[in-house]
Amino acid sequence: ESIIELLFQQQPLSSSNGLSYYNYGTAGFRFKANVMDGLMVRVGILSIILLLKQAEEVVSPTSTTASTTTSIITTLSTGIMITASHNDESYNGVKLANPDGSMLVPIQEEFLTKWVNESNSEEWKQLLINEKLVFKLKNRILQSSSLSLSLSLHIGRDTRSHSFHLSNLLCLGAQTFIDYLLLSQSSQSSSQSKSNKVNIIICDHEVLTTPMLHHIVLHSNPTLYLPSYITPKPTRKGYIETYATAYIDLCVDLCVAANANADVNNANVNANVNTNQQQTVLRIDSACGVGYDAVKELENAILNTNTSLALITTLNAQNGPQDGPLNDSCGSDHVKTLFLPPTWWKQMNKDNNDNDNQNDNGNYSFPYCCSIDGDADRIVFFGQQSKNELSEFLDGDKIAILIAHVLQEKLSKTKTNSNNSNNSIAIAIPTMGIIQTAYANGAATNYVRDVLQLPVIITKTGVKHLHHAAVENFDIGIYFEANGHGTVVFSKQYEQFAIRQQQQQQLKDSFYIGLHRLINPAVGDALCDMLLVDYLLRSLGTNDNGAAAAAGSSSSSSSSSSSWTLQDWNTKLYQDLPNRMLKVKVKDRTIIKCNSNESICLQPLTVQPLLENAMNVATNGIENGRCFIRPSGTEDIVRVYAEAKTRTDADKLALIASQIVY
Ligand code: NG1
Ligand code: ZN
């Protein structure tokens, strides 16, 4: 009764708050924060049900019949993050993570959506009773004398002012349901000793980044997914240590490779590595959010790992939670959609003479910058030309292609080396492909297909779609949304390949393993991607892209160790087609339906022919013109995307398309 009361005493989920239906969008439930109280209580209860459902799958019948003398404790963790990512401060959201750190699958989303919207208390009672009485899991556990189950729900939140309140409501729902379940557990069990066989706890990690929460969930389930060379602790500290160490190890390898004079067996090599690497400062716009502290911790961890090497790239975190409203005129979404530098860090310098940041040519002296978003899972890079101008801009497509470029070179060298060696067993080179969405720049897609000659898959918007496509299709699945949200997933075959390559290396070069260790396997992660890009740019400045350089040569030239600049990265691979994204507010965006990869509008029927007409070279003279529209899954707007050969044409096409929508 107390749960039902709790459920219905909260603000009702009805039209009285302006919303008649809560949908699970591109990345979870995301609404104006003031309509989310009741939703949070429900999500708390439902996430415990989902956790128990997953536990059912893990506790197989065979494990219950195992030895009756040894006690088997099965643990399982899932997670919930309270954040509205790149949205402005007035929004909040909640997204759930599965045991492997991945996003929910459609059937779980449907379950959640059905029950958060259910306003009939009798239906709810039935759900709770069903979960209580027919839980196969509990019966199985109770029948076994040796098995017990320890379940954890990990909760984290961003820095929004209402995240604490919403998190409390979520915990209230979850804890009330846990108490109810555990109470019924002890009343059902025949002996006192069995009363604690199912234990469910809520771990509140308070303010952290979305990728940290996913890291904690994934690594709390260590037996499920991970290769032997990845063994981090499932804590915030464990997260920081994991990526700081992986980055340092890769950089040390690079330095060793570039410094042919260094004795690779010399234990002091780490003390010398700095001598042949360029020093840089990376200025990080933290969107006035949670990423700020995380970058600071990462910086400290890198400094503590190896002082001499740590000086190579100074991580200069800016725009913390105290510096301005979240995502307001700063952060990756601002930079990506408006092609403008973030505002706040200029304001922070207002006490100094503003000219301090300009060099003799009047240009800004911020050559190497990046912006992350409100929960630190997206990142874009840029250089700052002037107050209102970017010199370079590098998005998720550029990151994906940088990764593919370096990996492809490395793999082809590995292949050549193996063909030249006496080893008669041909090695299987892992397969690699790139996953994009319709928002990927046309030039990027063409470059992958035509120059890199790698397969490209285009999925619906939302990393959950890209992630699954990457896992299902490739040993190395590189997926990035253009907005800078992405990661790389590696298969078991890749893991075996990486271990074999490591064993065969005469030099200290753990590139393949190192790369895997530096990349968050669960979700797009701004901090990992930041370190990864920094490492890759350095590796491209090093002869022969890694340790192989040192193998054949006895002299090292100083030019071989200077890193690629943002400009190199922006121009040496491919040039973006000018593009424009617009938001259009419409009465009801749900009437718009798109095809499976969202590049074509299917409904209303009149829209697509008009868009085709706008894109048509013959009628409008727009070269390389492409545009599409789709309803946003995180904001109450329709998104318009257009690209063309010139900026003017891209803007023109975007305008025409938004008029069609309007
Ligand atoms: P919507 O609002 O559905 O377009 C946006 C991003 C997604 C994803 C989610 C989650 C674009 C065009 N869309 O989704 O890629 O990141 O937010 O944050 O960038
Ligand atoms: Zn985000």
Strand-helix topology:
Layout (H helix, E strand, L loop, with lengths): L1 H8 L19 E4 L4 H22 L2 H4 L7 E11 L8 E7 L8 H11 L4 H13 L2 H8 L3 E11 L5 H26 L9 E10 L2 H11 L1 H4 L10 H23 L10 H4 L7 E6 L5 H15 L1 H4 L2 E6 L13 H7 L5 H5 L17 E7 L6 E8 L2 E6 L1 H25 L11 E6 L4 H11 L3 E4 L3 H11 L2 E5 L5 E5 L1 H13 L6 H8 L7 H16 L6 H5 L13 H7 L6 E6 L8 E2 L6 E3 L3 H9 L1 H4 L5 E6 L6 E6 L3 H15 L1
Parallel strand pairs: 2-4, 4-5, 6-7, 6-8, 11-12, 11-13
Antiparallel strand pairs: 1-3, 2-3, 8-9, 9-10, 13-14, 15-19, 16-17, 18-19
Helix pairs in contact: 1-7, 2-4, 2-7, 10-12, 10-20, 10-21, 16-17, 16-21, 19-20, 24-26
Bound molecules: 2-acetamido-2-deoxy-1-O-phosphono-alpha-D-galactopyranose and zinc ion.
Largest sheet: 5 strands, mixed
Helix content: 40-55%
Radius of gyration from CA coordinates = 26 Å
- CATH topology of the largest domain, by name, is Alpha-D-Glucose-1,6-Bisphosphate, Chain A, domain 3
Identify the CATH homologous superfamily of the largest domain: Alpha-D-Glucose-1,6-Bisphosphate, subunit A, domain 3
Please report the number of helical segments.
26
- Please state roughly what percent of the residues sit in beta strands, choosing from under 5%, 5-15%, 15-25%, 25-35%, 35-45% or over 45%: 15-25%
What's the count of strands?
A: 19
Q: Find the structural class using helix and strand composition.
A: alpha/beta
User: What would CATH call the class of the largest domain?
Assistant: Alpha Beta
Q: Can you list the strand order of the major beta sheet?
A: 1-3-2-4-5
Label the CATH architecture of the largest domain.
3-Layer(aba) Sandwich
State the end-to-end distance. 48 Å
Tally of distinct domains: 4
Low-confidence stretches: 63-69, 190-195, 260-272, 350-355, 544-560
Mean pLDDT: 84
Heterogens: 2-acetamido-2-deoxy-1-O-phosphono-alpha-D-galactopyranose, zinc ion
GO molecular function: metal ion binding; phosphoacetylglucosamine mutase activity
Domain Phosphoacetylglucosamine mutase AMG1: 395-539
Organism: Fragilariopsis cylindrus CCMP1102
Family: Belongs to the phosphohexose mutase family.
